[in-house]
Write a structure and sequence with these properties.
- The structure is a single chain.
- This protein is of the alpha+beta class.
- The chain folds into two domains: 208 residues; 95 residues, no CATH class.
- It contains nine helices and twelve strands.
- The protein has a five-stranded antiparallel sheet. Strands 7-6-8-9 form a four-stranded antiparallel sheet. The protein has a three-stranded antiparallel sheet with strand order 11-10-12.
- Helix 1 runs antiparallel to helix 3, helix 3 runs antiparallel to helix 4 and helix 5 packs antiparallel against helix 6.
């Protein structure tokens, strides 16, 4: 088993990773933070390897009104098997370090990375079911609305802003995975003598850089009524139903009190088209919900009274659009009809 052993620094990295994985059993792996005006101190749900923590009872009480299932650790099979999987990986790391066998190293890397992908896919599926399978007899029903939390990053859910990010245990997992991947790539190319040492180092740095870039996500930000000012007209945004945002490639957010102000801002060439990542509009039927421009349905009606009299509103689903179209005697309009100036 000791033929063609890998270097000592890889061995020590594996032993350190094993200890780190044991720590994961005792600290939260993920957290979801909820911010809303009625909870200025915020709410937090912590996900451990075997339980839920934080303000779970309060969150369950709020979710009851919109038809979401209550959260109980006993309902999740993952909390039963995940501690054993973590212990098994910790033992696998020790075994690989003890025998210093590169075949075990490669097998460990494939298994650990595969587990990470499967775990995130399972988490997304859980969030999807949790946010979409709603009680039809709930006290509050918003047509076409789903409450799936973000996998990672920010998402607006009615008047709650939801932030989903790794916690201590999650960052340990990510660090262990990055270190293991770097060690495996280093050993593979060194053993095969395919490239020189400086190329190996460069490749590893690129991997870490790409990982860092993909781990960070830029998202729209909730509009703070009575605090945020419109980027174009400079008026304080006070009406929650008409807002819009521009998200740049660098993650900067420009907020507007209505779509017409956003269009005026673009027409004056205050920002280049190559700088823009996306546009977001407030859903008129669900104030505080920001909808991506490509998923938005637009309606124009003279019956509206938007802050700057542009009278254009957006919707996330067709049912809401049709309801307000009949109610307001409006007409649907395409984004291409509005932004016909190379944006």
């Amino acid at each position: 088993m000791k033929a063609n052993p890998f270097q000592n620094w890889i061995r020590y990295s594996l032993l350190l990773s094993s200890v780190s994985l044991v720590i994961v059993l005792f600290v939260p792996m993920w957290r979801i933070d909820l911010d809303a005006p009625q909870y200025p101190e915020g709410l937090r749900m912590l996900i451990y390897a075997n339980k839920l923590g934080g303000n779970v009872d309060i969150i369950n009480g709020l979710n009851h009104y919109i038809g979401m299932k209550t959260l109980h650790a006993n309902d999740f099979m993952e909390f039963t098997i995940l501690p054993y999987i973590i212990i098994a990986f910790a033992a696998f790391f020790i075994l690989t370090a003890f025998f210093r066998n590169r075949k075990l190293l490669y097998a460990l890397c494939i298994a650990f990375v595969s587990f990470g992908i499967i775990a995130m896919a399972d988490f997304w599926q859980w969030e999807y079911n949790y946010g979409h399978n709603l009680n039809p007899d709930a006290a509050i029903i918003v047509p076409g609305m789903a409450y799936q939390p973000p996998l990672i990053g920010f998402k607006q859910l009615l008047n709650f802003g939801a932030y989903s990010i790794p916690d201590i245990g999650g960052w340990i997992f990510i660090s262990v995975g990055a270190l293991l991947l770097m060690a495996t790539v280093f050993d593979f190319f060194k053993n095969k003598s395919l490239i020189k040492m400086n190329t190996i180092v460069s490749f590893s740095l690129v991997m870490v850089l790409l990982f860092s870039i993909t781990s960070c996500s830029s998202n729209p930000k909730p509009i703070k009524l009575g605090i945020d000012n419109c980027q174009f007209c400079k008026m304080t945004i006070s009406d929650p139903k008409f807002g819009a945002e521009i998200l740049t490639l660098k993650g900067k957010v420009f907020k507007f009190d209505e779509i017409n102000c956003l269009l005026s801002y673009l027409q004056e060439k205050n920002i280049g088209s190559t700088e823009i990542k996306d546009f977001y509009f407030v859903d008129f039927s669900s104030p505080h919900l920001l909808v991506q421009q490509t998923s938005s349905l637009l309606l124009k009606s003279d019956s509206l009274s938007s802050p700057m009299n542009g009278n254009i509103i957006a919707f996330a689903n067709k049912d809401s659009l049709l309801f307000y179209k009949n109610k307001l005697k409006g007409e649907t309009i395409l984004w291409s009809q509005l932004a016909n100036f190379n944006y």
